[in-house]
Design goal:
Blueprint: H1 6-72, H2 78-98, H3 103-131, H4 135-222, H5 237-317, H6 322-349, E1 357-360, H7 361-378, E2 381-386, E3 393-396, H8 398-419, E4 423-432, E5 435-442, H9 470-480, E6 484-489, E7 494-501, E8 528-533, H10 537-549, E9 552-557, H11 560-569, E10 574-578, H12 587-597, E11 605-609, H13 615-623, E12 628-630, H14 635-646
Parallel strand pairs: 2-4, 8-9, 8-10, 10-11, 11-12
Antiparallel strand pairs: 1-3, 4-5, 5-7, 6-7
The structure holds adenosine-5'-triphosphate and magnesium ion.
Length: 648
């Protein structure tokens, strides 16, 4: 069934009003027509009867007058004249009776007719007696004629009265119909007024009031009160309008909330971006400083470590006093600690392109966790793994990502140790379309100054335990991978969240060069000749000593120019050169000279460098595969690489 809509209700009301108007109008017209027709018919009838009445009365008077004249002057043509009037009167009487008259009128006319015929008989007898000269008998009869004349007059008067009464009735009927007409008009007018009032009330109740509440609700929405709703109790247009309004208010509230959420999100993103920018600017400044300092420290450290190691080997070989050996060992191990610090600094300062390959995030984390799992267990620290089941793979530098994970794990471990309670470290990975999220959650001390932890050298750990560079390095690595790292306190500890892009698979590449594990470890058996190029005299001496323990004769020069001169005159098996040197020929120039003039020696070129951060050198090493060793170096590493180069 269709709902009773407002338009249908109004249509119904209008139809009722219109039908009433039409019914009243028809009724009125019919009434007036009926009574006016009746009136016209009666008036016409009355006119005819009055006229006939007049003529009859006149004819009878004429006959009586004719009879009276017979007494004074007898007329022989009296019977003809009397008959002629009589004939005429008879015609009229017949006509009269044919009219549409009532019973009483008919009866009166019939009575007049009989009185008139008696009057006619008496008149003829009077004429005959006058003809016979019997005047007295005629006179006695004339009285009877007078009597008949009077009776006829009376009857005519009665007839008149009847007709007058009829006329009055017609007039009364007309009056009545006029008053009925008035009643009909009043009735019509009042029903029209009532209909209009009902129409107005209905309009007010069914349309205007609901519209007003919708307008009020619209005002509320305009003022930001999105919870405003209109009660829906009807199924008509107004009900549907209210329903539509509520639906619109729902959508508005939803989109407004969404908009607010988005604004908050964007503001948060902007804040984070600003923090990242500030952090990046700080990093860049610190990197410059660190790079310079580290470079300067490398050479003295190399010398200290190298000679300490050499001396220790000599002391061990000469079975010297163990105290002296221990002393040398201490010098070496502390210098090694310094080397690690400098290496960390350089790691932090270095911004070379990451070496990208397909890295399984779950596997990287697992390898790091396994590295320290046993130790964590002994310290009552539980590891909880919640890896993403899809085993997400990203395009990244495996070694660097490992380093980030290890730093985070170490920090969590330290924080739990400091808190001094049984701990839990929870590691979670989540794959999200174009990115992977890694979360480290611990129940340690919590972060003391979250806004400072990524600053280089910021540490709360005791002297000698932390450099304050771990998270700075993590920050740099994550940035290199176009990712994000953030930290927060959970109330029970700290949470670190790293977001890394999955990356472009086309970027995947493998480090050029052969796998070092597959190399043979066959030592060069012949006495070899080496050329050492370094502007630091102590470094040259250290290397000559190292090489001599390996059975290699070495010559040292202090610059690239000297090296070129030497090479023009002497054959060598290996060239070990610094990168940055004073003069016109630095390490890279020397390498290029060898390529052009001694190409057979190109594979026997080894760089020893304190820092590869410099623009040109960094680029050079990225593009070429020349072997290199980083200062400060340990004897083991040095000798291994020298042997590898000599095998080329
Ligand atoms: N999980 C953690 N819980 C509480 N504090 C932390 C956590 N991780 C880092 N921190 C705080 O941030 C500081 C900086 O950490 P960062 O790793 O950079 O340096 P470090 O650990 O002190 O030293 P390094 O890593 O060089 O050995 C820490 O000293 C510590 O105060
Ligand atoms: Mg750390």
């Amino acid at each position: 069934m269709r709902p009773a809509t407002v338009s249908r209700q109004f249509l119904l009301l209008l139809t009722i009003a219109f039908s009433l108007v039409v019914a009243f109008a028809v009724r009125l017209t019919y009434q007036f027509a009926r009574y006016s027709a009746e009136g016209a018919r009666l008036t016409n009838n009355l006119q005819n009867t009055f006229a006939l009445n007049q003529e009859l009365r006149q004819g009878i008077n004429d006959q009586i007058n004719l009879l009276h004249r017979q007494f004074e002057e007898p007329d022989p043509l009296f019977p003809d004249k009397f008959s002629a009037i009589n004939y005429n009167l008879g015609e009229r009487q017949t006509q009269y009776l044919k009219l549409n008259i009532g019973e009483r009128e008919r009866f009166t006319v019939e009575k007049i007719k009989s009185l008139h015929s008696e009057l006619g008989v008496q008149s003829i007898q009077i004429f005959q007696q006058l003809q016979l000269g019997n005047r007295s008998q005629a006179l006695s009869r004339i009285n009877r004629v007078e009597e008949l004349g009077n009776q006829i007059d009376k009857e005519f008067a009665a007839l008149n009265e009847l007709q007058t009464r009829k006329l009055q009735e017609v007039l009364e009927q007309l009056n009545r119909s006029v008053s009925i007409g008035y009643t009909v008009i009043y009735g019509f007018a009042s029903s029209l007024v009532l209909t209009l009032i009902a129409f107005t009330l209905l309009l007010r109740k069914r349309v205007l009031q609901p519209l007003r509440s919708i307008l009020d609700a619209t005002d509320q929405i305009r003022q930001g009160n999105f919870s405003t709703r209109i009660p829906v109790s009807r199924l008509d247009e107004i009900g549907r309008l209210a329903k539509g309004f509520n639906f619109m208010a729902d959508s508005l509230a939803e989109s407004y909330a969404g908009l607010e959420r988005k604004v908050e999100e964007r503001t948060q993103q902007l804040r984070e971006l600003q923090q990242q920018l500030v952090q990046a600017a700080r990093m860049s400044a610190v990197r410059q400083l660190v790079s310079g300092v580290a470079h300067e420290l490398n050479n003295p450290l190399t010398v200290i470590m190298g000679f300490a190691e050499l001396r220790k080997m000599e002391l061990v070989a000469g079975k010297a006093d163990p105290k002296e050996i221990k002393l040398m060992n201490d010098i070496h191990s502390h210098a090694d600690r310094c080397r690690r610090i400098v290496a960390n600094l350089l790691q932090f300062a270095r911004q070379k392109e990451p070496h990208l390959e397909a890295v399984s995030i779950n596997e990287v984390i697992e390898s790091v966790l396994q590295l320290r799992e046993h130790e964590l267990e002994t310290k009552n620290i539980r590891l909880v793994r919640r890896y993403d089941a899809t085993n997400p793979v990203i395009c990244a530098d495996l070694y660097k990502i490992q380093q980030v994970m290890l730093n985070l794990l170490n920090n969590a471990y330290d924080a739990i140790q400091e808190a001094g309670r049984p701990g839990t470290i929870q590691v979670r990975t989540v794959s999200q379309r174009e990115r992977v999220i890694i979360e480290f959650l611990d129940n340690g001390t919590g972060i003391r100054e979250p806004e400072r932890i990524f600053d280089p050298f910021y540490t709360t750990k005791e002297v000698g335990k932390g450099t304050g560079l771990g998270l700075s390095v993590c920050y740099g690595i994550v940035q290199e991978h176009n990712g994000e790292i953030r930290a927060e306190n959970t109330g029970k500890g700290a949470r670190f969240v790293i977001t890394l892009p999955v990356g472009n698979p086309e970027m995947l590449q493998r480090q050029p060069g052969a796998d070092p594990q597959s190399r043979t470890t066959k030592q060069a058996r012949q006495k070899r000749q080496a050329l050492i190029v370094d502007d630091e005299e102590t470094i040259v001496r250290l290397q000559i000593s190292f090489l001599s323990t390996m059975g290699i004769t070495a010559t040292g020069v202090a610059s690239g120019d000297e090296a070129v001169r030497f090479l023009q005159e002497h054959p060598v098996d290996i060239i070990i050169s610094d990168v940055r040197m004073p003069g016109t020929v630095d390490g890279i120039h020397l390498y290029n000279w060898v390529r052009n003039n001694r190409p057979q020696l190109l594979k026997r070129f080894l760089f020893v460098s304190g820092d590869l951060v410099g623009m040109n050198t960094g680029q050079f090493f990225l593009q070429s595969s020349v072997p290199r060793i980083q200062k400060p170096f340990k004897f083991d590493d040095y000798s291994r690489i020298v042997r590898q180069v000599l095998e080329n």
